Amino acid sequence: MAESIVAAKSYQFALRIVKLYKHLTQEQREFILAKQVLRSGTSIGANVEEALGGQSKADFRHKLTIALKEARETSYWLRLLKDSDFIKPDAFNSIHGECDELIRVLKSIILTSQQKEQTNS
């Protein structure tokens, strides 16, 4: 079976978030915001994986909607980390760009899924 592009992208993003967490806690000594971005950033991929194993189309869409919410939350924490000078602008632009891409992909999949279900109704 072919690997899901969104699953691969969300997994790679989670790896970057883990590395960011390590940087924030070990070098910046920032623990609270680091933990928040770690939780939301890794939750995206976990929810995508759950969606792929969903029991129904509605379950699939619901889990992807949760992944989208987590991606939006991650975007918030990343912006906060940048604006509070814990992340340099270049690093922020790179990781936040990936987060934005995940948001766009998830929105697209959810919308397509909704449209297909409406067409089949």
List keywords for this structure.
single chain; 121 residues; mainly alpha; de novo design (two linked rop proteins); elongated
Helix content class: over 70%
Assigned CATH architecture: Up-down Bundle
The CATH class name reads Mainly Alpha
Count of strand segments? 0
Proportion of residues in β-strands = under 5%
**Number of helices, counting only DSSP H or I runs of 4 residues or more:** 4
H/E topology pattern:
HHHH
- Average per-residue pLDDT, rounded, comes to 95
Instruction: Tell me, briefly, the overall form.
Output: elongated
Sheet with the most strands?
A: none
> What name does CATH use for the topology?
de novo design (two linked rop proteins)
Instruction: Calculate the terminal CA-CA distance, rounded to whole Å.
Output: 28 Å
Q: Structural class, please?
A: mainly alpha
Explain this structure:
The chain has a single domain (5-120), classed as de novo design (two linked rop proteins). The longest helix has 32 residues, at 89-120. It has four helices and no strands. Helix 2 runs antiparallel to helix 3 (57-83). It is elongated and about 55 Å long. It has helices spanning 5-26, 32-52, 57-83, 89-120. With 121 residues, it is mostly helical.
